[in-house]
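WARN  no MSA supplied for this record, continuing single-sequence
INFO  ligand: pyridoxal-5'-phosphate
INFO  echoing inputs
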Amino acid sequence: MSISHIAQTISESATLKLNQTAAAMQAKGEPLIHLGGGEPKSKAPLEALVAVANLLESAEVRYTPAGGILPLKQAIVRYTEEFYGHTVTPANVIASGGAKQSIMVALQAILNPQDELIFTVPYWVSYPEMAKLCAAVPVPVVPKDGSFYPSIRDLESKMGPRTRAVMLNSPNNPSGAMYSEQFIAETVELCEKRDVYLIMDDIYHRLIFDGRQPVSSYKYAKKTGDDSKLIVVNGVSKQYAMTGFRIGWAVANKALIKVMTNIQGHQTSGPSVVMQQAALAALNGPQASVAALRTTLENNRNVMMERLQSFAGVRVTKPDGTFYCFADFSAFDKSSARLADLLLNKVLVAVMPGIEFGMDGYLRLSYCGTIKDITEGIERINWALDPSAPKELYLGDRKLVRDWL
Ligand SMILES: Cc1ncc(COP(=O)(O)O)c(C=O)c1O
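INFO  complex generated
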């Protein structure tokens, strides 16, 4: 088959693939526990569902402006004021088909072939592929101290003449680490000094625990007008449990938003009007669902921590936010892909291999499901990896015999 050079470099999304495999196994009636997922299980806010129903009933389902409808942009302006303490106008906003598309059009708007995009390790699976889609070069930054918290020196050491943009995701998928206010402040300052773009992927923005408050990168930006190179990305997928609605956004300087909108206009003509109305209703509605989700996730995190901390051989760092824990399983297998495969096929627990996030030996375990999923999933993993545990395990009436240790 003849395909483009760029297409040849792009791999399948490992997270989406695992979701498909898990769904297919569950559809066959397999007692699978999905600890690999990236979406909350709570329902979307009622206002969002009502907004969809109302629009469908009107049958007026049409094209919208490519960058999104004005009321949605206004709601995003309000969100930015309320949660970032920063004033923007609708001309600073683009609504897209998920935060993923906002990031992609931002990269297409700013990266030239061979430019370098810097991001921290562990990283979200899509960043390297998105850079490659622009014929740019992904540059991962590994924290020198072996933690999930990079220092400004780590970041600076990777910057060179080809650096065009830095991407930060805090709280972070997959580690759950929320970067310190000092690190964010230093990064904003460094990017302004070097005149490179800074993309803040804030998709897990308010899903943070232990009384933490979100850090606003705007607080440290000296350039705030048309020469600002700060791009802040967010969306309704995670905080409002609206992953399938596919609405995210970016806030940036007006000229850049115009360019991003031109690109998006040719890609998709803009996000679906139905889903924009749903996102608008969620943003303007009562915010109790976000707080409830945060509380549920914090509780789930605590349960997962408790289980993993008493799992001999596993090393964990307590996540500050998100719904992921990135645990070091290298004592059992240095190859995370092989280990994830074993757990899926032998004990029917789906987890994401760390190699997909740039760190082999680790597994990403999600705690966005039920407490039962978390406890039973970790019990099964423990049984699979503990040679001193009884040889047999029953999943309902199915008998598993451990013959791989
Ligand atoms: C770090 C990160 N950024 C962006 C996204 C994409 O979000 P959306 O569903 O709004 O496209 C995800 C989704 O998993 C994510 O984990």
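Residues 38, 98-100, 124, 169, 173, 201, 203, 235, 237, 243, 248 surround pyridoxal-5'-phosphate (CB under 6 Å).
INFO  checksum written, moving to next record
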